[in-house]
Design goal:
Number of domains of chain B: 3
Number of helices of chain B: 12
Radius of gyration of chain B: 21 Å
Order of helices and strands of chain B: HHHHHHHEEEEEEEHEEHHHH
CATH superfamily of the largest domain in chain B: Butyryl-CoA Dehydrogenase, subunit A, domain 3
Number of domains of chain A: 1
Strand order of the largest sheet of chain B: 2-3-7-6
CATH architecture of the largest domain in chain B: Up-down Bundle
Strand order of the largest sheet of chain A: 9-8-7-10-6-1-4-5-11
Largest interface: A-B, 12 and 17 residues
CATH topology of the largest domain in chain B: Butyryl-CoA Dehydrogenase, subunit A, domain 3
Distance between the termini of chain B: 58 Å
Helix content of chain B: 40-55%
Radius of gyration of chain A: 22 Å
Structural class of chain B: alpha+beta
Largest sheet of chain B: 4 strands, antiparallel
Distance between the termini of chain A: 56 Å
CATH class of the largest domain in chain B: Mainly Alpha
Number of strands of chain B: 9
Structural class of chain A: alpha/beta
Strand content of chain B: 5-15%
Strand content of chain A: 25-35%
Shape of chain A: globular
Largest sheet of chain A: 9 strands, mixed
Oligomer: heterodimer
Helix content of chain A: 25-40%
CATH topology of chain A: Rossmann fold
CATH architecture of chain A: 3-Layer(aba) Sandwich
Chain lengths: 259, 391
Amino acid sequence: MKIAVCVKQVPDTWAEKRLRPADSLLDRESAEGVLNELDEYAVEEALKIQEAHGGEVTIVSMGPERAVETIRKALSMGADAGIHIVDDALSGSDALATSAVLAGVLKDRGFDLIIFGSESTDARMSVVPAMVSERLGLPQLTFAQKVDVNGGTITIERQTDYGFDSVEASSPVVVSVVEKINEPRYPSFKGIMAAKKKPLETLSVADAGVAAGSVGTGAAWSVVADFAARPPKAAGTIVNDEGAGGVKIAEFLATNKII
Amino acid sequence: MTMQVQDVFTLFSIDHLLSEEERAIQGVVRNFVDDQIRPYVADWFEEGTLPARELALELGKLGMLGMHLEGYGCAGMSGVAYGLAALEIEAGDSGLRSLMSVQGSLAMYAIHAFGSEEQRLEWLPRMATGEAIGCFGLTEPDFGSNPSGMRTTARRDGDDWVIDGSKIWITNGNVADVSIVWAQTEDGIRGFVAPTSTPGFQANLIHKKMSLRASITSELVFTSMRLPGDAMLPGVRGMKGPLSCLNEARFGIAFGALGAARDCLESATAYAINREQFDRPIAGFQLTQKKLVDMALELGKGMLLALHLGRLKDEHRVTPEQISLGKLNNARESLAIARECRSILGGNGISLEYPIIRHMNNLESVFTYEGTNEMHTLIIGQVLTGISAFR
């Protein structure tokens, strides 16, 4: 089974993130770049499927130079090969452009299974997996909390508000996973050492078969018009409960039209 | 306002001195400690227990056990990588690092360096995965700094060896599958590979410890313990054997102790910024700032020294005296940092709700074991003057 896992480098989830005043894009220098947390679950699921069914796991990531560290993290967990799409033209790309580039790279490579994390911790749109499956004309098995592979039939449990839906399709398919699905492994030391010797392909926008003019800030369908730092938290009100605490809380909620 | 850099290693740009792999290894161990150790370790310490078996398997999965050894299922990493892993594990707890040091640098190293091919094949792969745990019997009740006077003996009986004696302060003793035992023979001091299931081997848990409580510490007693002739480590004779093992472990401590110190300093800095007295954070008082700055300097300098020793080790150029420099300085300064951090937390400093008193008590052991502060001082004194003050 040929499996691709699409991953994204994002600023450290716990770091203070900043936008650059000049172009309203993320200031990547302001925070350490890490493998998007949900993508770790995607990598783990791919490795588990590989362990059970054999095959090869390829990591695909679009991002600036240093995103290669993120690919290497996934390789150190056990994936076999990496594809890095890096191009100055890609800076500021929106989800539509990202999905076009990923689809361009993924098509014609014979992947049976293309796995994503269900969202990134920075943009949090959750749309790229669906967009890629649409562009590739493949079934989308998104928001999976469980994936079963039975020959060419892929069945997932799609997490919903009320439980889950069972969804099935024939490969090739696009899957996105939620964090309930597994517990990602730590890269082992041997894995870290092996990662630097694994094949890594570096592609440009042109290699993906996408016109440079259709990606990047200029082609984005949405732009950041303005931004401002979050105002500091206002001091709260402390109410001492001298027997009438409940009434005071009710009054506070009523004043603020919450009840 | 100038940028605030709370992390001392960032202030010193330590990352600049590390390769991408070294940073990756450090990151993995740090995440492991955050997820698997930090939430539980205060309870282990309070209860005086450690789930050593489970943890050994987890450490084995990462590749931490015997990580700087080549072959036999070991990860074959550099000395610097080993040091960074020790540092991050000890930021969790010195007891965990002790487990790792004893397994990798004492027991596995002894078999790797001095064992027969059969001994290596029998033990190293299982020890690397954590399925088998090792301990190292050198120190005796009456022979600490002067181990060459040990009373444990091994005598020939036909082809067999028969060992009698006892060892004290043996980390992992009660959970070990195999013990490296050093004993006097007619031929000088020799090492033996003794499965702990051997009749005549007995391990007694040491209670009433106020330090390294999240670590298994034992007394070993050998009563006519009979081992086959091939149980002896063939590759070394005399004190050179145990001392070269200790050299490996001391190197790990030069890094490891700094992890405990860093954890204390991080905790105390955050506390000082948030704790208000006289309507201002205590971090705003000059006395507190001086404490924090002095500690940051010692921590950063200690890290530079440790990394320097690590690079020398990886070029096979580090001397035992240089490792003494690292063990002496970094254990001593880490203990001083832990105590100073304790003072910043005031009354809260004595609570296991914060990591500081735990690290501080642990570092009392680290200060003493693997060569006391005094012995390392006299080793360096001897190098400087050419005069031995202890022999």
